[in-house]
Amino acid sequence: MPRRAAPHHAALLLLLGVGALAALAPCAANPDAKRLYDDLLSNYNKLVRPVLNVSDALTVRIKLKLSQLIDVNLKNQIMTTNLWVEQVRTTYNLGAFRIFPLRISRPTNLWCLCSQSWYDYKLSWEPREYGGVEMLHVPSDHIWRPDIVLYNNADGNFEVTLATKATLNYTGRVEWRPPAIYKSSCEIDVEYFPFDQQTCVMKFGSWTYDGFQVDLRHIDEVSGTNVVELGVDLSEFYTSVEWDILEVPAVRNEKFYTCCDEPYLDITFNITMRRKTLFYTVNLIIPCMGISFLTVLVFYLPSDSGEKVSLSISILLSLTVFFLLLAEIIPPTSLVVPLLGKFVLFTMILDTFSICVTVVVLNVHFRSPQTHTMAPWVRRVFIHVLPRLLVMRRPHYRVDPHRSRFAGLVSAVAESAPWEEGSPLTGAGSGPPGAPACSACRSCRLHDAPALCDALRRWHRCPELNKAIDGINYIAEQTRKEEESTRVKEDWKYVAMVLDRLFLWIFTLAVVVGSAGIILQAPTLYDERAPIDVRLSEIAYATAKPRPPPPR
């Protein structure tokens, strides 16, 4: 058994030997890198600016590289970004003036990578003297770095928190690319929310050095101007689901303060964003417009249903919920009223007026001749004039002629004079023969009812007949009063219907004109500029869905 296992042990020892040689191979070059590190940093002072003369200004050129727009908090007015700040520092090297790039990456609740690059004459070497080593990685805390900070930060973190290693090139160029996320304060203008456009600034400058010590400039700055139109690199930008990037100019500012004679420099990056409004249109604008049109339908609901006021109050409660949602989104500012707030407030005012008008309409609808008398001008305006203007036609019902003729006969009999003595009805036989002697008989003949006249002649006068005639007279009078009261009530109901139709048209016009006038005043609705982030971002281009080929 030991002899059979010997080949396996030999193979294992061979593999270990090869692995050791592979591990020691890079170490053969490490002595040169260690010697270079010791030579460069043994007498290096990271607290002193790398310039030959103390009066020389160190030129630092910076540029942002925006990676992601994480959040724009309207409530707290904070923008969170992910970006790279590219810096280039210039100094003198053995009497030669050279410029090299410097990069810094910092997010502003933008996610940013802060990449710095500058030229340090004390960190240059000859590669042939160090075994051909042309690049060296050192901790960034061991070398001098420009103290470029974000002035308008919102969380107190002025500098990069993760100090990654810096890369040294044999020419003296230093590159440092630490990742960072910045939260910058941003003045939010909610006047046209949610159809708004915001401009957030990120102000970078040296915290310690004045303009005579560190000359801060943009990488792409052209001589004779301090403005760079495309001041932020968007080549690796992840497009936002809420905002479109429209402009990213950078401006170099030089300020003098009363306390000092030296200028203080900063570079301000202005990020202009336009909100994508689909979310707010679907979840806020369209429901609010639907509720505003429900306010109009209150006047189409019949008054007899008893639900007009209930519908109006329900609409008012739903608008109150929208106001609470709006208050949770926008900052508590008293400078302007948001566009969406104007629209909700306008709808609430309309609904309040509709409740007041509905109360008046219901009051008119349930009026009666016992409580109100219709004035002649009310009858003329609301029954004869306005219905024609509002395209309303009141239906007229025809009365049965036989029923009307019988009712007139009964009324005439009831209202006739007392029966005369000697008439055929009493059997006395007075009066000319063949002529009716009572007004009842004359009424019978007047209404062409000879059969009834014959029956009346055969009847004899009796107390029961007088009581029946009195009852008929009372019923006829009450029926006439009831018909008159019903006619007046129907006139009041028709006036209320005319008022409903009038306010239906008025409120419809007010809702359409008011809604259009409020929403269409947003300037972004007429802004046809294409977002530059989609055009410049290589990531957006790579992840874009391929378009189908055009049909042949």
Automatic annotation (TrEMBL):
Keyword annotations: Cell membrane, Disulfide bond, Glycoprotein, Ion channel, Ion transport, Ligand-gated ion channel, Membrane, Postsynaptic cell membrane, Receptor, Signal, Synapse, Transmembrane, Transmembrane helix, Transport
Broad class of the protein's primary localization: membrane
Location of this chain's protein in the cell: Postsynaptic cell membrane
UniProt domain Neurotransmitter-gated ion-channel ligand-binding: residue ranges: 34-88, 113-277
GO MF terms held by the record: acetylcholine-gated monoatomic cation-selective channel activity; transmembrane signaling receptor activity
GO biological process terms held by the UniProt record: synaptic transmission, cholinergic
GO terms for cellular component: postsynaptic membrane
InterPro entries tied to this protein: Neur_chan_lig-bd, Neur_chan_lig-bd_sf, Neur_channel, Neuro-gated_channel_TM_sf, Neuro_actylchol_rec, Neurotrans-gated_channel_TM, Neurotransmitter_ion_chnl_CS, Nicotinic_acetylcholine_rcpt
UniProt domain Neurotransmitter-gated ion-channel transmembrane: residue ranges: 284-518
Transmembrane residue ranges: 278-301, 313-331, 343-364, 502-522
Topology within the bilayer: Multi-pass membrane protein
Signal peptide region: 1-29
Source domain of life: Eukaryota
Family, as annotated: Belongs to the ligand-gated ion channel (TC 1.A.9) family. Acetylcholine receptor (TC 1.A.9.1) subfamily.
UniProt function note: After binding acetylcholine, the AChR responds by an extensive change in conformation that affects all subunits and leads to opening of an ion-conducting channel across the plasma membrane.
Protein's name in the database: Nicotinic acetylcholine receptor alpha 3 subunit
